[in-house]
């Protein structure tokens, strides 16, 4: 197993300080960038570069967005998607953490499970779609099967890295102070692994959203994905785009929340302190 | 032998000026306040000289070196190399950085690290081979050509950086505290390597360090810098015999005198620097 | 002697659990009357009939070609744009919020969107794959280019390394760990998109065939499809890993050297 999932992390740290200093001017540029993006989306169909039947001007999508806000069916769909995502993620995180700690702290288990994990992990969870449809139909359980399968591996693999990263010196120190297995787990292994667990949660949260929407779109389970499919086949193009934007906003919210959570839970952790000080 | 080398030294110090630093001043702007790192530096380095620059830590030594290397534009004043003002890195210059671990390309073998600048110079293959071979030989690394830098010790990595610099055939070699991060024994070896390379190639060398012993041991002249905002406090001629040796040179009374003199200057520089903050 | 023993041990460790799992599957389903869970023996014996005849060329190959095409286009676009955006601070600030938003859109919802533009043919599927693979590659490349070591940048300036040589030997090589990370993430998104774009709307391909089996209640055939997808996912990940080992050999060595030094 290689440690490449976290590859980018060390290089990024050193630049965090410089990025902070430039933030003021950059925010303005970012707003300008977004405005340009919206203006392009308005102009391209209006000028006729793309047929407005395929891409309505962004103002019309805006109107459709406002319509969505007054549509109870939309809110139900949004609730369904969030529920599938949250439940699936919670199950995957719980499973991933428990299984990861058990396997990670017992060397024999680790040795014997590595090949199986390496084999099962890359299996695309969408392969399970037909099975899910057959067994669960368009039920929430179909969504959960896909979400949990995809998100579980993200958490598991990170937890395994984290447990492996425990400093042997710290382990020995804890042992000389007479900590038992449970105490060592609580005071040595868990704090070391926590940043990895949270990285796993962040990655899993994004993947879970993708799979939740996929399940709704392809299987037809209730939710935003399903609404998008219906809007498209019904020719409600502006509504479809509005729904796509909502899924994007949901994605942004998930990313921001996951990063907040990480920051909040790790405010004491040296890896984050260093990042702030740099 | 001794007579020979002494006449050589004299002719060197007396020759034409290769590098001329005239009234260089550098002010860093930012956040609505400015920091004057270098106030006024003026000195000249003759062709073939080995000059050391020493100063307390935070003396703007790196700023000075970057201005000379053309990596930073001075706020005022100018750097003239071989009669031409420096704007951007000049072609006849090679630099050895302090952070050897970060200035070598970790994805290239030792050999390719030395070769890359030569390729960019559009030298023909045969000539490149010759230069690489000679440079790696000179620093004693002929047998690790196909190793990657991270497989080598810190001292060996810095030798690779030196090999890359001399293979480039520079007219002037800048070294920015190159041995600050290696252990004492390796450091002594590398110092002797610099002396012997300078003797053999006759390349003009500007060696920046914070180590007074190192500066006196290596240089023909030692420029003592003040704390920031930096000026030149003193220009000490090192009249030690040209043939230097870690043991005899460092234990000679003249070495102790010179070292003491430079040490005093640096101490004075530190004391003066108490009110550093500038508006 | 001990080397031999170690090799034996690691082989046993690698094969034991999969062997036990397969054996369990085989035994537990041997007399299975369940409609959903046909005996493994039956699935395996059906496998050749289903896939190793015309379908390999008619369905598996088109799927893989679309994936390959989309992935390669995404790599070229992602690395190209990533280097550009990563090198220009102002451009990066200008694009960042838009990119953050576009990346956050779950790529499968682009299937119905792109169907509007490109119908249900190969173009649509390749476009879907490109638009899903692009973001991880692009954003990781930007991060990698931003993190290029300043000392190396100055080294290049001093030694006159510019233009194409600088781009390749400095920028792309030093961003390569992040680029490869992005490629790996992109590939796994790409496989998902390959399958669902075919499930959603297609007349051939792996996803199409599997969903056909499910709709016609050909459960054993459907299971062979699931197995095939699993094996393909595994093989593609393996290929990616080999590529990574080759391209990032220096990086793993460097990291190991740094870790050895710090402990």
- Name the shape of chain C in a single word: flat
Largest sheet of chain C: none
Distance between the termini of chain A: 31 Å
User: CATH homologous superfamily name of chain C?
Assistant: MetI-like
Portion of residues in beta strands of chain A equals: under 5%
Instruction: State the total count of DSSP E strands of chain A.
Output: 0
CATH architecture verdict of the largest domain in chain A = Orthogonal Bundle
Uncertain spans of chain A: 1-21, 273-278
* Count of discrete structural domains of chain C: 1
Question: How would you name the oligomeric state of the polypeptide chains in this document?
Answer: heterotrimer
Number of domains of chain A: 2
Q: What is the name of the CATH topology of chain C?
A: MetI-like fold
Share of helical residues of chain A: over 70%
Provide an overview of this structure.
The complex is a heterotrimer of chains A (278), B (279) and C (263). Chain A is mostly helical and 278 residues long. Chain A has 2 domains: 19-51; 58-277, MetI-like fold (Orthogonal Bundle). Chain A has helices spanning 8-13, 16-21, 23-47, 58-69, 72-105, 107-120, 129-136, 140-164, 168-176, 181-219, 224-233, 237-265, 270-277. Chain B has 10 helices and 10 strands. Chain C has a single domain (46-247), classed as MetI-like (MetI-like fold), CATH 1.10.3720. Helices cover 85% and strands 0% of the residues of chain C. Chain C has helices spanning 2-29, 40-51, 54-87, 89-104, 110-118, 122-146, 150-158, 163-200, 206-215, 219-247, 249-262. In chain C, helix 6 packs antiparallel against helix 8 (163-200) and helix 9 packs antiparallel against helix 10 (219-247). Chain C is flat, with a radius of gyration of 23 Å. Chain C starts with a helix and ends with a helix. Chains in contact: A-C, B-C. The interface between B and C is medium-sized, with 28 and 23 residues. Chain C: Residues 60-244 form the ABC transmembrane type-1 domain. Chain C: The chain crosses the membrane at residues 12-28, 64-88, 109-138, 187-211, 223-243. Chain C: It comes from Micromonospora globispora. Chain C: Keywords: Cell membrane, Membrane, Transmembrane, Transmembrane helix, Transport.
Question: What does the secondary structure layout of this molecule look like, with pairings?
Answer:
The complex is a heterotrimer of chains A (278), B (279) and C (263).
Chain A: H1 8-13, H2 16-21, H3 23-47, H4 58-69, H5 72-105, H6 107-120, H7 129-136, H8 140-164, H9 168-176, H10 181-219, H11 224-233, H12 237-265, H13 270-277
Helix pairs in contact in A: 4-12, 5-6, 5-8, 5-10, 5-11, 7-8, 8-10, 9-10, 10-11, 10-12, 11-12
Chain B: H1 2-14, E1 17-30, E2 33-46, E3 50-54, H2 61-69, E4 76-81, E5 84-85, E6 93-96, H3 100-103, H4 110-120, H5 125-138, H6 154-167, E7 172-176, H7 184-201, E8 204-209, H8 212-218, E9 221-225, E10 230-237, H9 246-251, H10 253-272
Parallel strand pairs in B: 2-10, 3-8, 3-9, 6-7, 7-8
Antiparallel strand pairs in B: 1-2, 1-4, 4-5, 9-10
Helix pairs in contact in B: 4-5, 4-6, 5-6, 8-10
Chain C: H1 2-29, H2 40-51, H3 54-87, H4 89-104, H5 110-118, H6 122-146, H7 150-158, H8 163-200, H9 206-215, H10 219-247, H11 249-262
Helix pairs in contact in C: 2-10, 3-4, 3-6, 3-8, 3-9, 4-6, 5-6, 6-8, 8-9, 8-10, 9-10
């Amino acid at each position: 197993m290689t440690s490449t999932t976290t590859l980018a992390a060390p290089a990024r740290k050193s630049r965090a300080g410089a990025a902070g200093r430039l933030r003021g001017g950059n925010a303005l540029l970012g707003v300008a960038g977004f405005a340009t993006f919206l203006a392009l989306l308005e102009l391209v169909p209006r000028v006729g570069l793309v047929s407005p039947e395929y891409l309505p001007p962004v103002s019309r999508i805006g109107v459709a967005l406002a319509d969505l806000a007054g549509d109870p069916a939309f809110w139900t769909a949004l609730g369904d998607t969030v529920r599938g995502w949250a439940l699936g993620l919670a199950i995957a995180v719980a499973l991933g953490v428990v299984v990861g700690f058990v396997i990670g702290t017992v060397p024999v288990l680790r040795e014997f499970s590595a090949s199986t994990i390496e084999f099962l992990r890359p299996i695309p969870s969408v392969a399970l779609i037909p099975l899910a449809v057959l067994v669960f139909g368009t039920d929430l359980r179909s969504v959960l099967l896909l979400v949990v399968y995809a998100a579980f591996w993200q958490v598991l693999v990170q937890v395994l890295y984290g447990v492996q990263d425990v400093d042997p010196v710290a382990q020995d120190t804890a042992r000389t102070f007479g900590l038992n297995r449970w105490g060592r787990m609580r005071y040595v292994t868990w704090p070391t692994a926590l940043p990895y667990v949270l990285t796993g949660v962040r990655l899993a949260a994004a993947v879970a959203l993708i799979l939740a929407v996929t399940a709704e779109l392809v299987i037809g389970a209730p939710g935003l994905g399903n609404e998008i499919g219906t809007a498209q086949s019904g020719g409600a193009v502006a509504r479809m785009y509005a729904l796509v934007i909502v899924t994007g906003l949901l994605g942004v919210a998930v990313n921001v929340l996951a990063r907040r959570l990480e920051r909040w839970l790790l405010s004491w952790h040296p890896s984050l302190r260093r990042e702030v000080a740099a | 032998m001794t007579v020979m080398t002494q006449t050589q030294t004299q002719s060197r110090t007396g020759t034409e000026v290769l590098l001329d630093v005239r009234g260089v001043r550098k002010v860093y702007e930012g956040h609505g306040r400015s920091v004057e790192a270098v106030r006024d530096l003026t000195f000249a380095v003759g062709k073939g000289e080995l000059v050391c620059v020493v100063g307390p830590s935070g003396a703007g030594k790196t700023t000075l070196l970057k201005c000379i290397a053309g990596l930073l534009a001075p706020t005022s004043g100018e750097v003239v190399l071989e009669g031409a003002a420096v704007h951007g890195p000049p072609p006849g210059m090679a630099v050895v950085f302090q952070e050897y671990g970060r200035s070598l390309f970790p994805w290239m073998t030792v050999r390719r690290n030395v070769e890359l600048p030569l390729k960019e110079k559009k030298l023909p293959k045969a000539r490149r081979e010759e230069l690489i071979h000679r440079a790696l030989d000179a620093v004693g690394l002929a047998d690790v050509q196909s190793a990657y830098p991270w497989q080598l010790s810190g001292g060996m990595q810095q030798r690779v950086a030196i090999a890359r610099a001399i293979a480039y055939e520079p007219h002037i070699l800048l070294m920015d505290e190159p041995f600050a991060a290696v252990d004492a024994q390796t450091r002594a070896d590398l110092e002797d390597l610099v002396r012997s390379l300078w003797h053999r190639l006759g390349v003009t060398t500007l060696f920046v360090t914070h180590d007074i012993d190192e500066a006196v041991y290596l240089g023909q002249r030692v420029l003592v810098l003040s704390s920031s905002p930096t000026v030149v406090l003193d220009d000490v001629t090192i009249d030690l015999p040209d043939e230097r040796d870690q043991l005899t040179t460092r234990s000679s009374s003249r070495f102790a005198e010179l070292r003491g003199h430079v040490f005093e200057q640096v101490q004075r520089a530190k004391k003066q620097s108490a009110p550093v903050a500038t508006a | 002697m001990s080397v031999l023993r170690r090799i034996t041990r690691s082989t046993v460790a690698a094969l034991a659990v999969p062997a036990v799992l397969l054996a369990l599957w085989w035994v537990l389903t041997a007399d299975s009357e369940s409609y959903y869970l046909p005996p493994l023996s039956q699935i395996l014996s059906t496998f050749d009939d289903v896939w190793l005849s015309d379908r390999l060329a008619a369905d598996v190959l088109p799927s893989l070609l679309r994936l390959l095409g989309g992935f390669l286009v995404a790599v070229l676009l992602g690395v190209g744009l990533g280097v550009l955006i990563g090198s220009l601070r102002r451009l990066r600030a200008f694009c960042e919020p838009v990119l953050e938003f576009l990346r956050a859109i779950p790529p499968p919802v682009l299937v119905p969107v792109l169907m509007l533009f490109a119908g249900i043919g190969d173009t649509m599927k390749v476009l879907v794959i490109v638009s899903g693979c692009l973001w991880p590659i692009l954003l990781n490349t930007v991060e990698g280019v931003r993190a290029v070591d300043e000392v190396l940048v100055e080294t290049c300036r001093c030694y006159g390394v510019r233009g194409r040589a600088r781009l390749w030997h400095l920028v792309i090589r030093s961003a390569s760990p992040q680029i490869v990370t992005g490629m790996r993430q992109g590939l796994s998104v790409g496989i998902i998109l390959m399958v669902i774009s075919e499930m959603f709307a297609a007349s051939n391909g792996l996803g199409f065939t599997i969903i056909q089996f499910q709709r016609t209640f050909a459960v054993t055939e459907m299971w062979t499809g699931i197995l095939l997808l699993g094996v393909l996912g595994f093989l593609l990940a393996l290929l990616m890993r080999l590529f990574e080992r080759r391209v990032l050999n220096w990086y793993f060595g460097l990291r190991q050297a740094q870790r050895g030094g710090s402990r």
